[in-house]
Structure formats: C-alpha cells, structure tokens
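Now for our specimen.

. . .
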Amino acid sequence: MKDLQVIFMGTPDFSVPVLQTLIKNTQVKLVVTQPDKEVGRKHVLTPSPVKQVALENNISVFQPEKIRVDYEEILKTPCDILITCAYGQIIPKEILEYPRLGCINVHASLLPKYRGGAPIHWCLINGEEKTGITIMYMAEGMDTGDIIAQEEYKILPEDNVGTLHEKLSFLGADLLLKTLPSILDGTNKRIKQNEEEVSYAYTIKREEEHINFVNKGKDIVNKIRGLNPWPMANMIVSGEEYKILEAYFILKSDVQSGKVLDIKKDAIGIGCADGIVYLTKIKPFGKKVMMVKDYLNGTKKEDIQNWNIT
C-alpha cells in the first residue's frame, strides 16, 4: 500500500487523523482544502488544520474557492485514488471520474442516516443511541454513494459534540486503513443505500441554537449536548444571551416552564414541560465559560430567581 498515490481532500480537525494515517501508509501527492480564513477579533488569516499537517509533511496544497469550477490542479496530479473527509464542498463529476480506483469518502454517520455536513450534532440532538463511520464511494449527490464499510459507536450519556467528534475522527482513520486493502484488490463490498431510510444533517442554523423551555427535559439536554462546545445552545435572560454547555434533567410534574424553580450550590434549575433542567456549566453574557457553582459565588440568589427567560 506504500506505493498507492493519493489525493486527499479535507478541512477541519476531524479530517486530520485520516490524513495522518494516509501519510504514514501511502503516498499523499496533493492535499486539497478550503482557503485560509480570518479568525478571532484581530482577523488573523489562518490555515485549516489539514493544511497545517500537509505543510508540516512537505505536501503540496491546493485551496480553490469553488472546487466545481477550479479543479485543473487535481487533474494534473497523478493519483490512484482520491479520499475525502469533511472537505466542505460538493465534488464535481470531472474529479469523481479521474482516479482509477475511484473517490472514497469518510463520513461521520451510519449512512443513509444523517447525510450532510453536521451529522455529529444532529445524532446527539435527536437522542440517537448509536452512530458511527461510513466508508463509501462518492457520487454526484450529497453522501449518496455506495457503502463499502461501516463501524458503529455506542453513544455514551456523557458524550457531546466535542467528545464524539474526536472519537469518530480516529474511528474513521482506523476503519479507512482496514478497508483500503480490499478497495485496492477489488474485493470490497459495494452496498446501495436504502433511500427509504435517508435523513439529513444540515448545518445548524442560528435560531436552532436557542433553548425553548416549553419542550421536554430530555430533548433540551440532548440539544445542549448536541451543540457543546460549538456553536453552543443559548437562552435569553432579561435580554442578554447566556450560553449553556452542560445540564441534567429531573422528571417532575406540575412545574412552570421557563422559570427558575431551584438553586443548588452547583446548579440552576429551570422548569420545562415535564420537570426541571439543571444548568451546571454556562457562559454568561460578556463573560467566559464557567461552572454554575462559580457563577453562583458572584451572583445574588434573588437576581437569579427573578430571571426573565425567553
């Protein structure tokens, strides 16, 4: 496999373990990633994590603004196979037809469930008990290609987007390494996706970050997990946005939704449809992320009891 010539396409941290695995086991001839972006208040132009790894390993980097119109550099690069992982743009037909062994994608869900760019977020928000990695052939549609291999991961109660992101990134790299030999010798599986089981994981919209306490407690906690640590769930307290990173739920009847009902030494309890959601980690407006026990040390209990939550 050391002679295998690869073009890799990816962008965020999630893609890095896959790229590192390919660098160790194949010849990565070109890395394609998104253009550098301005980051932070000072708008510092910053390369993607994938680009940083490529440069550290003296691999050529190509950063087209729109891959559907600017792809000639790829077609000029000798390769046997093209592998993508969280690249961030739809790959045009001209590229898909170029490598002799095809184009392979490493996707963070058990397809056909959660096609799209935010599968980790939505599997948590929707309260799934399991997720996983799919290795698949790429097609012109979004995550529509034939499945080559899959590996499941049982979601733990303490998992959030950050922990699941890291676990699945390494699971994807391992599964790809195990799957590549069968792709090279033509013995791999090729399973059509069941279109009746398709669901989509579109990018989280700003308004979807908001917590509505008229909902059930389990759904609220799942949403908080599914947005932690980015982009973070939020609530509005007396006109100011508070981010919520961690919470737990206790079932209780006859409570008033959206009102502070209990204040413990390490949690603030807010009523919801079927009980109380206890916030344990928050980011108050204009402040850093903190545990609620620390927030309570500098805030009057009466002020919290009078929160106007919308």
